[in-house]
Design brief:
5 helices, 49% strand, 13 strands, 13-stranded antiparallel sheet, 265 residues, mainly beta
Length: 265
């Protein structure tokens, strides 16, 4: 996951000091996240009254050179079990990513339009675009602060604003007018982010914590998104990693609309 498993090899301080804001985000984008992964996650949805709903899901991901494919299936509770999301992330900037959603209650696979990616990912504060990632070439980057400490780690603070060539495409796909990221200097992991929604006067706050080196890959194990409106929290979502295995064999046939309907058990 572009947003969830960000890592890169640390650079000497003298080289890091010479990086532009785009260089930093390019390094984030070009992280080593393994050739494939299978992960079990728990999603917690928290409403404005702090009531919680819990969902469990398994995510399969596989790289195909510069492209990647991902399939996510909900295992529980019963009312959402079998709901499956499939996405193809194409490296070609002129090609829209492909994604589908299977709802067992309707027994049909729905293809998602590019404009649907700004919608909530199955009731969470993460959008489909947050979940699958974004194109770096859509944005212009600049440093807001070249040194800010977050949880004891020195970070760059970088602002991203859609550039003129891709403004409409970026805003339609993400639903955000701009965003900021706090990137650790030692491993190029995004530890915090903030995004301004185009509508509703809402601002989202993201955090990526409990970061652990697993199979040589820096992996945030707790992901949180908080949606605020006019400075007040509306709701929040947490993704908690339970288990992950990198560089495992995954059959190509898994990443098809047929497998979404058949199930993975």
């Amino acid at each position: 996951l572009l947003l969830f498993t960000l890592c890169w090899s640390p650079l000497p301080g003298s080289i890091a000091a010479e990086l532009s804001a785009r260089d930093v985000m390019q390094s984030v984008d070009e992280r080593d996240d393994g050739d494939s992964a299978i992960a079990d996650w728990t999603m917690v949805l928290i409403d404005r009254r702090n009531r919680e709903r819990t969902r469990n899901m398994r995510i399969y991901e596989k790289d195909y050179g510069e492209d990647s494919k991902q399939l996510s299936r909900f295992e529980s509770p019963a009312d959402i079990r079998g709901t499956t999301f499939l996405s193809f992330d194409w490296d070609d900037i002129d090609r829209d990513d492909d994604s589908w959603l299977y709802l067992p209650s309707l027994q049909r696979v729905k293809r998602l339009a590019a404009s649907d990616t700004s919608d909530s990912f199955l009731g969470s504060d993460f959008t489909y675009a947050d979940y699958t990632g974004w194109q770096i070439d859509w944005y212009d980057f600049r440093f807001l602060n070249e040194s800010e400490v977050v949880d004891g780690q020195d970070c760059w603070v970088i602002e991203a604003v859609p550039n003129a060539d891709f403004k409409d495409k970026a805003e339609d796909a993400t639903g955000y007018s701009r965003w900021q990221a706090w990137v650790r200097k030692d491993n190029f992991v995004i530890v915090q982010a903030q995004a301004w929604e185009l509508r509703g006067n809402r601002v989202k706050y993201f955090s990526f914590t409990d970061i652990e080196l697993i199979d040589g890959i820096w992996t945030p194990k707790r992901l949180q998104a908080i949606t605020t409106r006019n400075g007040r929290q509306e709701h929040a979502s947490i993704f908690q990693l339970n288990e992950i295995e990198y560089n495992v064999d995954i059959a190509d046939e898994l990443f098809t609309t047929d497998s979404m309907q058949r199930g993975l058990n």
